[in-house]
Amino acid sequence: MGNTFAKLDENENAFKGRSTSVGSGTMRPNNIAERRRGVSMGLSNNVRSRANSTGSQLMYKKKSTRERDLIKESFAKQLVVRYDESVDGGYLAPHGCYTFEKLDYDPSLVRSLITARKLAPFYIPLQDFDESWTRDELIKIVDGLPLHAAVNENPEEFEDIPIGNLKRQNFDELIDKSLSKKEQRKQRSKIFKARLHRKRIMWQEQENVAFLEQKLESKREPNPSKRNLALPSPDLNHTIYKKGIECPICFLYYPEPLNYSRCCLQPICTECFVQIKRGDPHFPHEEVDPTKPVTSDDEKDPNLLISEPASCAYCATPNFGITYQPPTNRKTGIGGMPPGSYKAPRDDEINVNDGSDSEEGPRTPSKSPEDPEVVTSDMIRPDWKAKLDKERLRLARRSANATAIHVSNQLVDPDHPSRRDSNTDSGPTPTTARSQRLVPNPMAELENQMVEQAIRLSLVDEEERKSSQRHR
Ligand SMILES: [Zn+2]
Ligand SMILES: [Zn+2]
C-alpha cells in the first residue's frame, strides 16, 4: 500500500482532520453563461439554458438572505463527489487537493464540460506510483482509496462558532440580538459558513460511506450481474491507473489522458485547472509622474478598472485554456457503459491509436483561446465580467456618496473651504491663494454642484439597471 496523503499535508490545505469531505468557503453564486462560448463549445441546450437561468437568478443583489443561502448550498452540493456520477473512471467533483474556499468556479458548467468530455474528469489521485506493482497490488491500492480526501473538520476560522441543529434551516436563535444590526449580519454570515462547512463534510461522508458499503457488498455478491455496476470494475481501475502521469502542479499521479495547456501543451489535472483564474479587478499600473500628486484609487474613474485574463501557469501566455482528448479505450459512466461492466480488451485487440497511450502526450498543436476545443479559465467562471461591472458600480457609488457628503458639508458649514473654492479636483491650493480668490456667487456654485451630483447618482442607477439587465 503505502499510498498516504502525506504530500497533501505538506501543502497548505486542510488534510489534518479525519477523513471525508471538503472545506468551507465563501461560495459566490455566479453563473452567467457566455452564450457565444456555450454555442461554440457545443454544450447541450439543457446545459446552456440552465446556466442562463441560474445566471439571471443569481446576479446582483435584491435577493433575500435565505435565497442566497440556498444558492450557496446548492453550489456546495454540486461539489460533493458521488461514486455513481462518473466519466471514464473519474468523477464530476474535485477529490479535495485544495480546500473548499478555493473552489469558486461554476460547478454546473464544469460538470457539463466533463460529461461532454471537453475536460478531464476529476480522478482520485495516487500519492505515488511504482511501476513494479503487480496488477493485483495496483487494484488493491486503488480499491482502498477514499472518494474524497480528508478534510479539517474544525478549521481555526470556525472555532467557537455555534452551528446549532444542522437539520433545521433556520438558525436565528444563534444570533446575539443585543448586537448592532451590522454586527448581527456579520455574525450570521460566520455561522452560515461554519454550518455549511459541517454540512459539506456530512454530505461527503454519506457518499463515502455509501461507496464503501457498496464495495463491500459487491465483494460478497457471487453473482456478477447483481453487483452494483456504478462501481468501477477491477479491469477499469487497472486500465486507468496502470499508465498515469504526474501533474506538474500538484505532483499527484493521475490516469492519462490529462488536460493539456492550449499554448505550451503541458499536462494539468482538472483539480489544478479549476484553480487558475483572473485576478481581482484593479486599476492599470500607471507610470508615476513625480511632478504630480499621486491619485488615490478613490479618485480614479471607476470605468478605468480592468480585469486581466488568467495566464498560463507554465509559459505565462495570457488567456489560459486547455484541450482534452478523451480516452478511446474506455467510455464508461455518464454517456458510456456502466463502469462495473468494463472489461479490458485482450492484448491482441488493442487499437494502435488507443487514446490511453501516454507516450505521445497531446496530439494537437497549440490552439487559440477561441478554438471550439479549448476550455479557458474564463469559461468556468463566466461571472468575471459581472464582477468587474459590480466593482465599477461600487466605486462609482462610493465616489457619488463622497460628493454628496462634500456638498452637504458646504451647505452646513459657511467656512467650508469649498464654499470659497469649489475646484477641489485640481489638488490642494495654498490657503493664501484660496482665500484671496473671489467666487462671484457661492450659492449658485453650490446649486450647480448639487445638480451635477443628482445627475451623477442617476447615471449610476441607470448604469446599474442596464448592467443587471445585461446579465439577465
Ligand atoms: Zn494537479
Ligand atoms: Zn503555456
UniProtKB/TrEMBL annotation:
Native source species: Zygosaccharomyces rouxii (strain ATCC 2623 / CBS 732 / NBRC 1130 / NCYC 568 / NRRL Y-229)
Start and end residues of each stretch annotated as Disordered: 1-46, 325-379, 405-444
Record-given protein name: ZYRO0A08382p
Biased composition (Basic and acidic residues): 413-423
Xref: InterPro entries: Sip5/DA2
Family: Belongs to the SIP5 family.
GO cellular component: cytoplasm
Record's compositionally biased regions (Polar residues): 18-29, 424-435
